[in-house]
């Protein structure tokens, strides 16, 4: 039953790679509603779950690697934030180079595709452990990541339709399958590995929420944004009250 639930969650995330192309062709008003709801939910996930999780889990890396013996504890406990920062900087740097230096696409294109695959792989790889920690955490992770994939891929489908159809959605779906197989083979994933994977994924989610998922103020629908924000906030607070931080 557990692995059936994992498959359903991964399938939900993967289906968003294929639905994004349909969403990108919908009227602007409808896209603004989708983006407002998803942006609100993503913002709540970042601030209510992700950032507290990084703060509480920083000591895990320090203790596991014995680094607290050589560096101040405050510095070692910031290591998860460093991993999350890499999850922000790497995709952003590749996007900037691609836009400002089109002649570099021979290597930035494959690099962005590899980063895209890695992030999708980590979605599926970390999902079974999140479901083990708490069913509600795993389901809310699935909802947040599905909304993120749908909105981020929508932008990708609009900006690079041919590359998205031929490469990115296939690569993302394949990476999800590979991550699921890897997680099943090595289940349960260690807390340290899960923390690092979640931190890197969180960095990518963080930059995507602010750059792509929250609509421009001229296009945002505040009522739909508030719906996504408050619904995800309430569900995350209930999950935290029941399970504590994952």
N-to-C SSE series? HHHHHHHHH
Radius of gyration: 18 Å
Tally of alpha and pi helices = 9
Task: Give unreliable regions as ranges.
Answer: none
Spatial gap, N to C terminus: 21 Å
Q: In percent terms, what proportion of residues is strand?
A: under 5%
**Number of separate domains:** 1
Beta-strand segment tally: 0
Q: What helical percentage do the residues reach?
A: over 70%
User: Class by helix and strand content?
Assistant: mainly alpha
Anisotropy-based shape: globular
Mean pLDDT: 84
Q: What's the topology here?
A:
Blueprint: H1 2-23, H2 28-65, H3 73-76, H4 79-100, H5 105-133, H6 135-159, H7 161-186, H8 191-213, H9 222-243
Helix pairs in contact: 1-5, 1-6, 1-7, 2-6, 2-8, 2-9, 4-5, 4-8, 5-6, 5-7, 5-8, 6-7, 6-8, 6-9
